[in-house]
# Entry
Amino acid sequence: MLRATRILSLLLFASLFVTKAHADDMDTHATVLVKLDDAWSRTASSKDPRGVSSYYAKDALVYPPDDVLATGQEAAEKVWASYFALPNFSISWKTAHASVSRSGELGYTSGTYQDSYTGTDGKTVNEKGKYVCVWAKQKDGQWKAIHDIWNSDSK
# Structure
């Protein structure tokens, strides 16, 4: 009986480490998404629509504010090209939250962004907003954005 209790205690103790290792692994995956999201923001600051759209899956759904749904990587590239065509356009974002599913196949990032551009009246427009992006691990192991939505904090 004492031996069975010791074995059970040892197994319970060992399971704590397995769970902890699994949780650490999830944190590592989330960190990967944060780094990827940060790299994406840096790419956007270069105003390269093809580079920005390369972060999307081929069949991604992009939900730009005050616009129609953009379906697919090519449509996403057109959305970004329209932003980059605005006079003095700049954008950056910062990830505040990230998580990856237990399966390791889906994850999300969310945070805040700011952009600015010269409006049609010649005045600088400054926007701040928030975003949520859902990521999926592709067959080749790369993470790609599959749903991307953002909107301004102001009306």
Q: What stands out?
A: The chain has one domain: 2-152. The helical segments are 2-45, 49-53, 73-84.
